[in-house]
Amino acid sequence: MKLKTKKGHKIFGLLICLWMALLSGCYSKTQIPQGTSKSQLHGYASWYGGKFHGRKTASGEVYDQYKLTAAHKTLPFHTWVRVTNLSNGKSVVVKVNDRGPFVRGRVIDLSRRAAEKIDMIGSGTAKVLIEIEKKPRQSARNMTYIQLGSFSSQGSAEKYSQSMEDRVGDVNIGIYEENSLFKVWLGPYATQLMAQKSLSHLKRKKIEGFILHP
């Protein structure tokens, strides 16, 4: 009888463990933020610079801490992503050209310049939303962009984008591939009026562009 009781306890214990594991699995599924899709990711970002500046990245490009780039563990090189600091709502579009971060709990490593754009230099890390940017969502309501240039090669678009950064101020610049062309777009703007004011400001600086209506 004692042997049977021990076996019974073992079986009962196994059933309890299995039940708890199933509950744990169900609970973890509820922790995924609402609205998250395969093209979105929540997590913690960090930034790197200093001794890495001037060194080759995993993609073969030379790391420049003053460019808008990032390191990610799995995203393909030259993928463009929008990183939004969830503590202040500021966002920046960066190109993945390196691998990392290799610190547990972090999902992306930003260049110093990118970290400055979303105000996370002082804190060192920030909880962020990462969204893959294939091209601007023109169909979305209240989204307006300014096109600054269009190029047949990605390298030319990147070079032009970098040259524009210090001239246009604190507005996001992104590069989007469309119809085999690499287009440099400024924005998005919440309204066409805001875009028009920005375009007027650009023209005073002798920078050409035009508004893309959603």
Structural category:
alpha+beta
Helical residue percent band: 25-40%
Highest CATH level, the class of the largest domain? Mainly Beta
Range of strand content: 25-35%
Q: Low-confidence parts lasting 5 or more residues at pLDDT below 50?
A: 1-6, 18-38, 136-141
CATH topology name of the largest domain, in short, is Barwin-like endoglucanases
Strand order of the largest sheet: 1-5-2-4-3-6
Q: How would you sum up this structure, described in words?
A:
This protein is an alpha+beta fold and 214 residues long. The chain has two domains: 93 residues, Barwin-like endoglucanases (Beta Barrel), CATH 2.40.40; 69 residues, 2-Layer Sandwich (Alpha-Beta Plaits). It is 29% helix and 31% strand. The protein is built from four helices and ten strands, in the order αβββββαββαββαβ. The strands form two sheets. The protein has a six-stranded mixed β-barrel. The protein is globular and about 45 Å long. The protein starts with a helix and ends with a strand. The N terminus is likely disordered.
Compact summary:
This protein has 214 residues and is α+β, with helices and mostly antiparallel strands. Helix content is 29%, strand content 31%.
Tags for this model:
single chain, 214 residues, alpha+beta, Barwin-like endoglucanases, Alpha-Beta Plaits, 2 domains, 6-stranded mixed β-barrel, 4-stranded antiparallel β-sheet, 4 helices, disordered N terminus
Topology:
Layout: H1 2-29, E1 40-48, E2 69-71, E3 80-85, E4 91-98, E5 106-111, H2 112-117, E6 125-132, E7 144-151, H3 154-168, E8 173-178, E9 181-189, H4 192-204, E10 210-212
Parallel strand pairs: 1-5, 2-4
Antiparallel strand pairs: 1-6, 2-5, 3-4, 3-6, 7-9, 7-10, 8-9
